[in-house]
Amino acid sequence: MTRLPACAILAAAAFVVMAQPPAPPNVEPAKAAPPAANPPASQAHIITLIVSPAAAPTPALKFELLPRLRDRTPGNAALDYHRAYILRPTWPRDPAESRKQDEMVSKWEDSPVDQLPVAEVKKFLAGYAGTFKSLDQGSRCDRCDWELIRKLHTDSIGMLLPEIQANRELARFQKLRIRADLAGNDFAAASRDLQTGFRLAKDVGEGPTLIQMLVGLAIAAVFTGEVDQFVQRPDAPNLYWALATLPRPFVDPRPGLEGEAMLFETLFPNAKEFEKGPVSTDRANQMLEDTLGAFRRTAGGEGMPSGFESVAGKLGLTAYVALHYPDAKKQLIALGRPAAEVDKMPPAQVVALRSVTLIRALTDDQAKCFSLPYPQARAELARVQARTATVVKENQTDVLIQLFSLTLPAMEKVYQAHTRTDRRLAGLRAVEAVRMYAAANNGQIPKQLADVTLVPVPDDPNTGKPFEYAADGKTFTLTAPATAGEQANSSNSFRYVVTIRK
User: Fold this and answer.
1) Is the pTM of this model over 0.90?
2) Which domain holds residue 321?
3) Burial profile 159-197: b = 16 or more Cβ within 10 angstroms, e = fewer
4) With a cut of 50, which residues of the chain have pLDDT below it?
5) Residue 37 lies in a domain
6) Do 117 and 128 sit in the same domain of this protein?
7) Given phi > 0 = left and psi -120 to 50 = alpha, else beta, which region is 75?
């Protein structure tokens, strides 16, 4: 049976690793630096670009960021992605050599394209020829089935984390491949390699778990950064229409949300039977005992709520039901169950159904926010957060509710990562609109975004208003500010500082 606490813990862990490169084998973890005496104040993520004016290419979609259907062939991309990982070269076994190679690759990742030692990079990447061939083939398959549905019914989600994280390592070396293309101003090759990267991001992100969505969004962020590198090259083609034709949202959240709902059904295998109506006392006791047994087996793990082990492990079924039945009956009726129907239910069914109904209501309220514009979703998520706090406080000894409450912050963070991706892509598209204006106006930039009329300039998805814009000579800033009430940081705001070459 799936262990839901692993979902909460691993989802939180995924946020920690999203911004970190995957650690190669045999590399000893670096020691944490001591905290600074005066840490810098939080601020928006600053992206500095130097670009050339550029009109739209002809045809407009000469350079795209996802493979077209006409370029895709029948097959399951997941098999090629697995093959790509297997075919990668063996990392040095000696820890010191492994760390040295990792530091070299990290230096290349952070190096400006103009300063990249292209010959060394290409020599290193030659060993990944088989990996890149399989990556390209996978990204041009007509479907991607990770075949995880069966595993979600039987295995802990923690078993899936290593294979999901493996795709981040593939993205790391695909990033270097793009940079080598850009160093030679081979825009056609760079475009094809960006297509491979963004397709990998979508295929990973649209798997049936929230962790896959997180990792897919992290991979998308890697290649969005490489689009920044692309548009900075002298004579780089304009990618406005390539960005405009990307799907919005870039990663479809439905597969991950539906997978999480399936995890709920797996932990509560009798939920549907509970919901149909009254069952016998013996059947209700057995179904509740089955569920509590699953929770007992998870007790004592990292991240368990306070008092969980004693409540789940020492209270017998009779005592557990007696403790919760009076309040559960009142809450279940308040949640919309007819009082006459609740009166006919055995106490064990009432206690279990109260937990199922409360939890489903909260998770559904979160999931529906993925379909709302950001300002509306943010307000609704705040209301769900307040309701969750009340439910948790009112049901402090209900282990089912306490444990499920651990997953709810993870869902909110997934939503934030989801919107962050689409906001960055919209910001890049606005930058390309200004490059297009400059090409049509002798290199001059607009005084305000409203002056750009050749193409529609996208609004900031988080505010529903135009991005903040300011022009000074040959330089302009395009800002996506933090939402009112939030302190600006690299997760909730960014600013492009863009200089137009003469």
Assistant:
1) no
2) 259-408
3) ebbebbbbbbbbbbbbbbbbbbbbbeeebeebbbbbbbb
4) 1-21, 23, 25, 27-41, 299-313
5) no
6) yes
7) left
